[in-house]
Each structure stands twice: as C-alpha cells, then as structure tokens.
Amino acid sequence: MKIAVVTDSTAYLTHEEREKYNIHVIPLSVTLEEGAFEEEVEISTTEFYNKVKKAKVFPKTTQPAVGKFVELYEALAKDHDDVISIHLSSGISGTYQGAVQAGEMVEGIEVYAFDSEISCAPQAFYAKKASEMAKNGASVEEILAKLEDLKTKTKAYFVVDDLSHLQRGGRLSSAAAIVGGLLQIKPVLNFENKVIVPFEKIRTKKKALKRVEELLAEDTKNYERLEGVVIHANAEAEGKAWMNELAAKYPNVDFHLSYFGPVIGTHLGEGSLGLTWVEKN
Known about the structure:
Elements: E1 3-8, H1 15-21, E2 23-26, E3 29-32, E4 35-38, H2 45-54, E5 60-62, H3 66-76, E6 82-87, H4 95-105, E7 110-115, H5 120-135, H6 140-153, E8 154-159, H7 164-168, H8 174-183, E9 188-192, E10 195-200, H9 205-220, E11 226-232, H10 236-249, E12 253-259, H11 262-268, E13 273-279
Helix pairs in contact: 3-4, 5-6
C-alpha cells in the first residue's frame, strides 16, 4: 500500500521540505490589481508584499478549483493506493471541502481529507509527520490517528499590527476589530473551533509577544522536547531576533523560522508575528 501526502500552499513548506518529505502541494491564489496569482508559483512572498504596499485595492484570496485537486489525485492514482490531503482550517477557507469533493470524484484511489483546523507551520507539522509515517509503513488509520493526537499537542498564537485586514477579509468579527482599533490594542489571536479569535487583549505588541512567550514557557515544563516555529509577515529581522531570544531561554525547544505567505499575509497584514510549537517525537 502506497500513501501520497498532499497539502496546500498555506503550509508554506520550503522547496527543500517538499522534496525531502515528497509532499505534493496545491496552491491557493491571491488577486491583486494586475490579476490572480497562485502563491509560491506565480508570485513570491517578497513580490506580494512589495505589490501590496503600492496597491490601491485590498487583495483577495481564492481557494483552488476542485478540478485542480481532481487532476492531482488522478495523477497520484497511477502509483498510489491512498492520499492523505491536509488543508488549512475549514473555518476560514473552502479548500478542505474542495479536497473532499474531489476525492468523491476520482476513481482508483482513496482520498482522506484532513482538516488541520489551523494553517501555516502547524499545518506543515501535520504534513511532514504524515509523510514520515507513510514512508515508515504506517497505515492510513494510524497516520490519521496520530494527526488527531498532534492537534491536541499543538499550540499557535499570533499578533497582528492592524486588525482591519482580518476584519475586511471576513476572518474576524467586525465587533472584535472595532474594539481592537478603538483601544489600539495588539490582541493575541489563536484558532478556536476552526476560526480566528482573540485569545487575550493586550495593549502593546511587546507585551503581547511576552504573553505568547509565557504560554510557551508553561509547555516547556510539560514536554521533554518541543519543535517551535516563529512565523513572520515580511518582518524577517524582527522574527529572527525573537527566535534567537527564545532559543537562548528555552534549550529544550528546537526553533525554526517560517513566514506568512501571500494568502495568509493578506488577512494578517505585514509585520504580524506568530509562534507555534508541538511535542517533538
């Protein structure tokens, strides 16, 4: 039994990770004044943020067409028995549902769509773990059970500079955005029940990041070893500095740096920072 692993571009896997883990990626798209672009394929993250700075119209995001999934699954059916297709939260995108629909349309291969209930680096955690297990001969059922277990051990928090991006894109309620704007707070956000919600409302970005660090510190006492990822939205220097600061304080966490690409960056806005971690085993 040969199992293929698919995810979408919002996992923001590097090219090296895609090749190492043999993960197939379906791109989401951003629509700018010049037209629609598949992220990581037709537009790079740097190009996106440069274009947005000059744009007069707020960018929009688009999930992949069901036909894109069908095309990939049919190609994989030639030498695979099953596909585990891992996607960003169904609470903020229809991508997962597109995978489900496509799975019902293809023949010769079983498709198991998995709702990560989150996005970005945590989604990448799941895709890489699924690939590792498939390579080592695990069954579909064993892999899916492990991914569900990882959900309970994955934490992710992020801080945005401007809540209006999330509100405008429909990923945060107007009430939450208005309150945040009036008070000029920098709330710590997270995913709850598949959608983005304020975790705590804090006045400054510095204090918000400190609060996220406190949450990490609590978990470093509960787990022998963690994998941690600092995620930035076109703020590499700030993200790297925070990562190095955390790495010096928490030696039992293996830290990496990642980024919010065009699709997620559209909703969070430039300058946003996130931190996610999961038990390492």
